[in-house]
Amino acid sequence: MAKISFQKSNSAVWPWLGLALILLIADQFTKVLILGYYQLGDATHVTNFFNIVRVHNSGAAFSFLASASGWQRWFFTAIGVGAALFIVHMLRSHPGQKLFSFAMACILGGAIGNVIDRMMHGYVIDFIDVHYIGWHFPAFNIADSAISVGAVCLILDELLRVRRSRA
Fold first, then answer.
1. Residue in 27, 129, 144, 157 annotated catalytic
2. What's the CA dihedral at 63, 82, 116, 75 to 10 degrees?
3. 27 an active-site residue?
4. The domain containing residue 107 runs over which residues?
5. Distances from the Cα of 42 to the Cαs of 14, 113, 132, in angstroms?
6. 117 is catalytic
7. One digit per residue, pLDDT tens: the chain, 167 residues?
8. What is the domain count for the chain?
9. Catalytic-labelled residue, pool 117, 126, 129, 157
10. 32-40 long-range contacts, Cβ below 8 Å, gap at least 24?
């Protein structure tokens, strides 16, 4: 009987891995376009609150540790690989939790997208520039967006779980 349950949880993970793959492909495709059409620092004004730019981030979120001596490339790569392995384990362990699995798949796709950048280039390619009246949010990419959506969904999933346990 345990073997059947393992097979069910194993097959339930494939749609979530598929979502992660779609996000990864979208992320890498857009980065290939940016690398092909933009030089470092180039920008295109799209709207009064949105630009497309080419930025290289050798650090983590908000350029954390970007000015370090180079060790951060491998540190953040190792964290990304470790996170990916942990997320696949979590997806296999919680196949019936749809919001949780959606969140994990988003984070997985984004984490792998940024790990690929670090391995291939030594930095993450960012290109989305959101701004308002002279204030610019740090540039980001599809992978960062997927990770952020996943994090928000994880928080929502936990809030809903706590709410259900109190009822």
1. 144
2. 40
3. no
4. 2-166
5. 39, 22, 19
6. no
7. 444 444 555 778 999 999 999 999 999 999 999 999 999 999 999 999 999 999 998 766 655 555 555 666 678 788 888 999 999 999 999 878 999 999 999 999 999 999 999 899 989 999 999 999 889 899 999 999 999 999 999 999 999 999 888 87
8. 1
9. 126
10. 34/125, 34/127, 35/125, 38/127
